[in-house]
């Protein structure tokens, strides 16, 4: 992903920390008109998704991640936008430039979770914007609101 003028960048780089570029994808999944699927972890609330594996598309990544993290069976639909989130991961002791795609997806079903440190919760759109950990995730929810208004 190129840093195009329409790709916002969130977060601040830490001087002297080399950044690892990590392509990622996140799903915006609605259950009701005003409810979004959110993954709760020990460090906060996130849209379901994560890093792309080698050769994986954004659509494949959100299908895999949503199943692993939240037990969601998804059908990816459309790209809402792209954004960059600058983060430091204490667990990995590394700095990342997460080049993220945010996609709308339809919920087809629910299965058992495979990732024990995540829990599926449903938030209203307004609550999601308040609770989501990353600015880029809040930005994506805002784009969803504008699109559906």
A few lines on this structure:
Helices cover 23% and strands 46% of the residues. With 149 residues, the chain is α/β, with parallel strands linked by helices.
Keyphrases for this structure?
149 residues; alpha/beta; Nucleoside Triphosphate Pyrophosphohydrolase; 5-stranded mixed sheet; 3-stranded antiparallel sheet; globular
Question: Please, could you describe this protein's structure?
Answer:
The chain has 149 residues and is an alpha/beta fold. It has a single domain, classed as Nucleoside Triphosphate Pyrophosphohydrolase (Alpha-Beta Complex). It is 23% helix and 46% strand. It has three helices and eight strands; from the N terminus they run E-E-E-E-E-H-E-E-E-H-H. The chain has helices at residues 58-70, 125-131, 135-148, and strands at residues 9-10, 19-29, 35-41, 44-46, 48-51, 72-89, 94-110, 119-124. The strands form two sheets. Strands 1-6-7-2-5 form a five-stranded mixed β-sheet. The radius of gyration is 15 Å and the shape is globular. The protein starts with 8 loop residues before the first strand and ends with a helix. The model has no long low-confidence stretch (mean pLDDT 91).
What count of helical segments does DSSP give? 3
The total of beta strands comes to 8
Spatially, the strands of the biggest sheet line up as 1-6-7-2-5
Count of the domains: 1
Q: Residue-averaged pLDDT, rounded?
A: 91
Q: For the report, how would you describe the main beta sheet?
A: 5 strands, mixed
- The rounded distance between the terminal residues' Cα atoms is 28 Å
- SSE string: EEEEEHEEEHH
- CATH superfamily placement: Nucleoside Triphosphate Pyrophosphohydrolase
Which shape, going by the Cα principal axes? globular
């Amino acid at each position: 992903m190129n840093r195009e003028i329409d790709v916002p960048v969130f977060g601040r780089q830490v001087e002297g920390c080399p950044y690892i570029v990590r392509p990622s994808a996140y799903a915006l999944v609605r259950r009701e008109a005003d409810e979004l699927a959110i993954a709760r972890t020990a460090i906060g609330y996130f849209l379901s998704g994560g890093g792309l594996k080698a050769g994986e598309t954004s659509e494949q990544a959100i299908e895999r991640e949503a199943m692993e993290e939240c037990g969601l069976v998804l059908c990816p639909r459309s790209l809402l936008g792209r954004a960059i989130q600058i983060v430091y991961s204490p667990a990995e002791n590394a700095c990342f430039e997460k080049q993220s795609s945010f996609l709308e997806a339809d919920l087809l079903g629910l299965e058992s979770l495979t990732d024990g440190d995540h829990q599926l919760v449903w938030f209203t759109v307004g609550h999601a914007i308040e609770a989501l950990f990353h600015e880029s995730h809040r930005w994506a929810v805002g784009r969803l609101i504008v699109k559906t208004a």
